[in-house]
Every structure is written in C-alpha cells, then in structure tokens.
Amino acid sequence: MHETAELLKEHQLKATPQRIKIVRMLEEHGHINIEDLYSQMLEEFPSVSLATIYKNINQMIESGLIQEVKIPKTKSVFELIKEPHLHMVCDKCGKIEDICVGTDRVIEEAQKLSGYDIKESFITLRGTCPDCR
Amino acid sequence: MHETAELLKEHQLKATPQRIKIVRMLEEHGHINIEDLYSQMLEEFPSVSLATIYKNINQMIESGLIQEVKIPKTKSVFELIKEPHLHMVCDKCGKIEDICVGTDRVIEEAQKLSGYDIKESFITLRGTCPDCR
DNA sequence: CTGCAAAAGAAAATTATTTTCTTTTAAGCC
DNA sequence: GGCTTAAAAGAAAATAATTTTCTTTTGCAG
C-alpha cells in the first residue's frame, strides 16, 4: 500500500505519520532545511516537536535513507539518498538543483594525484540560475 | 616587516597580535576549526576570549581573507583564500588536503547542462589517504 | 486484541554563536 | 616618542541550534 511506509520499513524505521510526512516533503521538495521542515510539519501536526524533527532526521541519516547537504554561506538541507549528483545553488533565489553530470573524471584525476581511495564526492556549485538572469 | 601584518592591512584589518596568530595558524595548518583555533590561541594568549575568535573569523570572511569549508559529517574548517582547489578528507585520520586539479571540465559541463552562470565551486571528496591504507 | 519496544511531545540541558558593554590598544598625527 | 581615537579585546550575558531526559502515546508483531 503506502510506498513511503515501505521505504521507511526497509530502513528499519517505524512508519509513523510524522516520519511519512518528512519523507513526503523530501520527495516533493528535493532539498529542505530543518526550519522549513518544521514549519510545514506544523501545518499538518500542530503539536509536533522540533526534537521529533531532529531525532528523525538523525535516525534517517544513520539508516542511510537521507543525507545532509552542507552548503557554503547557507543552512544545511536534507535530501533522500539517490545516485551520485552535484548541487547547483542559485545565489539570487537560493534554489537548489541536482545535476547528474559525470564527475567521474575529477574523481579519477584527484585519485591519481592524491593517492586517496575515494569513496564519496560532495560537489556544490554556486551561481545564477537561468530564471534569475 | 611582518608580512602577516601587511596581509591583514591589505584587507582593512588592524594587525592585532591575536589576528596575526590566527593567520599564522591558518598558514601553518592550512585548515583549522574553531575549537583548535581557540585551544592553540590559549597557549599564547591565556586570556583570549572565544568571542574574539568568532568575531575575527567573521571579519576575515567578510574581508575576503579566508573562507569557511563545510565538510559533511564534520566541523567546518577555515582556510586562507587562494586559487581554486578541491578538498580531500581522510575518513580514517581526518586529515584535509588541498588538491589543485582541473575542475574546469565539471564546471563547464554543469554550466552547459544547467544553464547556470557558475561563480564558485566547492568540491570535497572523502576517502582513505595513502598513509591510512 | 494485547503487550511492549520505540516514537512523540514537552521541557530542560547542552552546545554553538552572537551581542553588549567596558577596558585596552593599534596606528595615524603632531 | 607621546596623544587621540576608532576599533579590538575580553567578560559576561543573550540568543540560537541541537540534544537529552522523562512521561505519555502508538505502531506493529504475535
């Protein structure tokens, strides 16, 4: 039935209404920060606690369902984990977009130069989006 | 004389002993977080205030002398601004290294795909360094 | 339908960062 | 070199962000 509930259970998390709402918001917005998560949550669950948001976000991170995206000069946002991608941040409207572009070459090049065994990449590019130009 | 003092003055910042020490630490370590900055500062200036660290770091960021590097799953570090580069973070020892590798192609590719006018890039790669393998 | 481990909510505690206010000091000027 | 002053330092309080604790509620396995 509820596919969101299934997703939570696959990650060993009880499918509570609050958690389902969080996942739905992440699915809908792609990226969302704690503040927005909380204020949107309040609309549907007027007595939700901020501690619930934090606790759930942390559990979802631990379970590998979501990840935190730290953005220079701005608040962190959270997103469902999916295939590797990079983040475009618009310096005018603040919009964040995912771009699936081959980062393989940078990683390969960096691997060669540094001798590191690279496991994860976090790439954020800041600029002005087409709508704001 | 003091080249560090000159650097501060070029950025319209009074060359106080505390600021000189901060810049020296950044030059020496490359990357350093608030906590380490504070504890090392205490050795030389036993009565330094944490507020002084924060205020100076913020002023140095505003003046374009340094920048904050936000790292997934870890505390932010600060570094002197220099030519574009990427950050390698070792998941074993926590060491952070700069790599000057051509990120131009990712940026170009992303620019083409997204239509953004890209101004800055923040690239962090996580993996295991040669020493920890 | 029942029992219980886990989650929610409320409030307090902790940690991180900023602000305020008073004292001290770097640096331009004579 | 001493004087002036705007800016910085330091101390403490204030604010913001996040976590913890504790009690009540609830999802879900049996």
Give the strand content of chain A. Answer: 15-25%
* Low-confidence runs of chain A: none
Distance between the termini of chain A: 44 Å
Tell me the greatest interface: A-B, 40 and 40 residues
Q: Which range best describes the helical content of chain A: under 10%, 10-25%, 25-40%, 40-55%, 55-70% or over 70%?
A: 40-55%
Number of domains of chain A: 2
The helix/strand order of chain A is HHHHEEEEHE
Judged by helices, strands and strand pairing, the structural class of chain A is: alpha+beta
Oligomerization category of the chains in this entry: homodimer
Radius of gyration of chain A: 17 Å
Q: Overview of this structure, please?
A:
- The structure is a homodimer of 133-residue chains.
- Chain A is of the alpha+beta class and 133 residues long.
- Chain A has 2 domains: 3-80, Orthogonal Bundle (Arc Repressor Mutant, subunit A); 86-132, Ferric-uptake regulator, C-terminal dimerisarion domain (Dna Ligase, domain 1).
- Helix content of chain A is 42%, strand content 22%.
- Chain A contains 5 helices and 5 strands.
- In chain A, the strands form 2 sheets. In chain A, strands 4-3-5 form a 3-stranded mixed beta sheet, with no helix packed on it.
- The longest helix of chain A is centred in the first third of the chain and has 13 residues, at 17-29.
- The radius of gyration of chain A is 17 Å and the shape is globular.
- The interface between A and B is large, with 40 and 40 residues.
- Chain A binds a DNA duplex (30 and 30 nucleotides) through helix 4.
